C-alpha cells in the first residue's frame, strides 16, 4: 500500500536541489525535506506508544508539515491543534484524541503545561534537538500496516461542536489522482497556500503538491499584501484559497498578469465574484469544488462550466457517485430537492467517537438537487434549515442573494425561535451603513416568507479556524443583540 510520503525519496534523488517548501523563515530543498521527514519518522518509531498518535500545536511553516509528514511516514496519526482554540477547547480535544505525546511551539508551552497532561509534552525546540540526535534509518519497508490512519482532524464546527474524524492514507492517494487528472497539478507547479494548515483544504493542498514534487510556498497567516507581493513575482502557478481570501485579493487587484490556477473551496463563492475574477483576469483558470472533511472531493465547477451552469457546484469527480434522496430513501427526480448522498473511494474512515465504520453511501446532511445534465446544486444544510410557519427556508439561498448586493461583503442568515411562527430568519451583515436597499433587493428576488424578519449589522463576523463564518457563535451573538433591544 502506497504512503502519501513515498515519493519523497525519488524527488530527493532525481532533483535534490529543487525547492520543496518556502515559508517566511526558511527554504528547504527536496534532499533536505526527505531527510527531515525520515528523521521525524525514525524518532516517532523510537517513542513509547499505545495509539501511535502525535498531537502538535504549531503555526504554519515547515515544522508543521514535517511533523505531519513524519507521522504519516512512521505509520502514526497526526493530530494538529489550533492555537486559536480556548484553553478549554484545546484541553478537551487533546483528551479526546488520546495522543501518546504532544509537541508544542515554544511560545505556547506554558499554556499546555497548565493542563497537567498525562502524556509527554515537548517544546518545538526540544523536539528539533531530539530528532537531530535520532539514528536516521532510511527505510519505507518497516511499516507493515496496510493502510494506517494518518490524520485526525476536527470538522470546522460552523453549525455546532466540532467532531474528530479519521482518515487513512489511501483516501488521500485517491484524491491526489483526482488533483492530477482534473486540476492538472504536476511536479512543475509552484503552489501558494493562502490559509492555515489546520484547514484540511489547505493542508491537502500542501501535502498533495509535495507528493507530486512541486514547490509549496506558505504564509504564516493570510495577509493580503504579502499574498499580492508573492503573486506579482510571477513564479506561482496555482493557489489554494477560500472565497473570503479571493475577495480580498480581487479588491486589491492582486492576481498579477501571469497564468494562474485558482483552486477554491470551503464556502459559498458568489457568482458576481466569479464573474469579476474571470472578466478582469483572462489569464486565470479556476476550479470551485464542493467537498467536506468527511467526504473529501465531491464535485467541481470549472471556469468554462461556470458560464453554462453559474449557480451549480459542478459535476461529480470521475470516481464519485452522487444520489439525491427523499426522506424514505427513494431517489429524487432531476431538479427535485433532497438529501445529498455520496459514494466515494476518497471518503473518511469515520468519527473517532463512533464504533461502527461509515456506510458505503455517506451524507453530511447537505440538501440539494441534480439537474438533467448531472450537475449538482446546493440548497443548504438540513440541520440549518429554518421552519417558518411550516415552510422550509434554507439560509444559504437568502445568503446568496445578500452576497450578490454590492454593499454586502459577507452575510449569514440564522433561524431564531418565535412564539408564533416557530422560527424566523434573521440576517446578519458585515460592516454596512444601512440595510434599506439590501432589504429591497431581497424582497424583489425571493418569496415574501423567505425575507429576513430581523436585520443585524456586525463590524466583523466570528470565524472558524478554516476561515468560514462560525454560525453557532454568530447565532449566539444575534440572540444576545436582540435580547438587549427593547
From TrEMBL:
Spans traversing the lipid bilayer: none
Entries under Gene3D superfamilies matching the protein: 3.30.300.30, N-terminal domain of ligase-like (3.40.50.12780)
Annotated ranges, domain AMP-dependent synthetase/ligase: 10-352
SUPFAM superfamilies membership: Acetyl-CoA synthetase-like
Keywords, ordered alphabetically: Ligase
Enzyme Commission number(s) from the entry: 6.2.1.3
GO MF annotations in UniProt: long-chain fatty acid-CoA ligase activity
Pfam families: AMP-binding, AMP-binding_C
Domain (AMP-binding enzyme C-terminal): residue spans on this chain: 397-468
Name assigned to this protein: Long-chain acyl-CoA synthetase
Domain of life: Bacteria
Key word RNA-binding present: no
Enzyme class: ligase
Family named by the database record: Belongs to the ATP-dependent AMP-binding enzyme family.
Any coiled-coil regions, as ranges: none
Family matches, as NCBIfam families: PRK07638.1 (NF005797)
Amino acid at each position: 500500500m502506497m504512503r502519501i510520503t513515498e515519493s519523497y525519496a525519488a524527488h530527493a534523488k532525481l532533483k535534490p536541489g529543487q525547492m520543496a517548501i518556502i515559508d517566511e523563515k526558511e527554504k528547504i530543498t527536496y534532499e533536505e525535506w526527505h531527510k527531515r521527514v525520515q528523521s521525524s519518522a525514525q524518532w516517532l518509531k523510537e517513542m513509547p506508544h499505545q495509539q501511535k498518535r502525535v498531537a502538535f500545536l504549531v503555526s504554519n511553516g515547515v515544522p508543521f508539515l514535517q511533523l505531519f509528514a513524519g507521522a504519516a511516514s512512521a505509520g502514526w496519526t497526526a493530530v494538529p491543534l489550533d492555537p486559536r482554540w480556548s484553553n478549554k477547547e484545546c484541553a478537551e480535544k487533546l483528551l479526546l484524541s488520546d495522543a501518546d505525546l504532544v509537541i508544542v511551539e515554544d511560545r505556547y508551552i506554558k499554556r499546555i503545561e497548565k493542563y497537567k497532561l498525562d502524556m509527554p509534552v515537548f517544546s518545538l525546540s526540544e523536539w528539533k534537538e531530539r530528532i537531530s540526535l535520532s539514528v536516521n534509518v532510511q527505510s519505507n519497508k518497516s511499516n507493515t500496516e496496510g493502510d494506517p490512519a494518518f490524520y485526525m482532524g476536527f470538522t470546522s464546527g460552523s453549525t455546532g461542536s466540532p467532531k474528530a474524524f479519521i482518515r487513512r492514507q489511501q483516501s488521500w492517494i485517491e484524491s491526489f489522482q483526482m488533483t492530477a487528472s482534473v486540476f492538472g497539478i504536476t511536479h512543475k507547479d509552484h503552489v501558494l497556500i493562502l490559509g492555515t494548515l489546520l484547514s484540511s483544504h489547505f493542508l491537502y493542498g500542501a501535502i498533495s503538491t509535495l507528493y507530486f514534487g512541486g514547490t509549496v510556498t506558505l504564509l504564516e497567516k493570510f495577509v493580503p499584501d504579502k499574498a499580492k507581493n508573492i503573486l506579482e513575482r510571477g513564479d506561482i502557478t496555482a493557489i489554494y484559497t477560500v472565497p473570503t481570501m479571493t475577495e480580498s485579493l480581487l479588491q486589491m487587484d492582486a492576481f498579477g498578469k501571469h497564468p494562474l490556477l485558482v483552486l477554491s473551496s470551503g464556502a459559498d463563492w458568489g457568482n458576481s465574484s466569479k464573474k469579476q475574477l474571470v472578466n478582469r483576469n483572462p489569464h486565470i483558470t479556476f476550479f470551485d469544488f464542493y467537498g467536506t472533511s468527511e467526504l473529501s472531493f465531491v464535485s467541481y465547477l470549472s471556469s468554462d462550466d461556470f458560464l453554462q451552469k453559474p449557480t451549480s457546484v459542478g459535476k461529480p469527480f470521475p470516481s464519485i457517485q452522487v444520489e439525491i434522496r427523499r426522506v424514505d430513501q427513494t431517489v429524487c427526480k432531476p431538479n427535485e430537492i433532497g438529501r445529498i448522498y455520496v459514494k466515494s473511494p476518497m471518503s473518511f474512515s469515520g468519527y473517532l467517537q463512533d464504533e461502527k465504520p461509515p456506510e458505503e453511501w455517506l451524507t453530511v446532511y447537505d440538501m440539494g438537487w441534480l439537474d438533467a445534465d448531472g450537475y449538482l446544486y446546493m440548497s443548504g444544510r438540513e440541520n440549518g434549515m429554518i421552519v417558518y410557519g411550516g415552510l422550509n427556508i434554507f439560509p444559504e439561498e437568502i445568503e446568496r442573494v445578500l452576497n450578490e448586493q454590492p454593499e454586502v461583503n459577507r452575510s449569514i442568515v440564522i433561524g431564531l425561535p418565535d412564539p408564533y411562527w416557530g422560527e424566523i430568519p434573521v440576517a446578519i451583515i458585515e460592516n454596512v451603513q444601512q440595510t434599506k436597499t439590501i432589504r429591497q433587493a431581497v424582497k424583489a428576488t425571493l418569496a415574501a416568507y423567505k425575507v429576513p424578519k430581523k436585520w443585524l449589522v456586525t463590524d466583523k463576523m466570528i470565524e472558524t479556524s478554516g476561515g468560514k463564518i462560525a454560525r453557532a457563535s454568530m447565532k449566539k451573538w444575534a440572540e444576545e443583540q436582540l435580547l438587549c433591544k427593547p
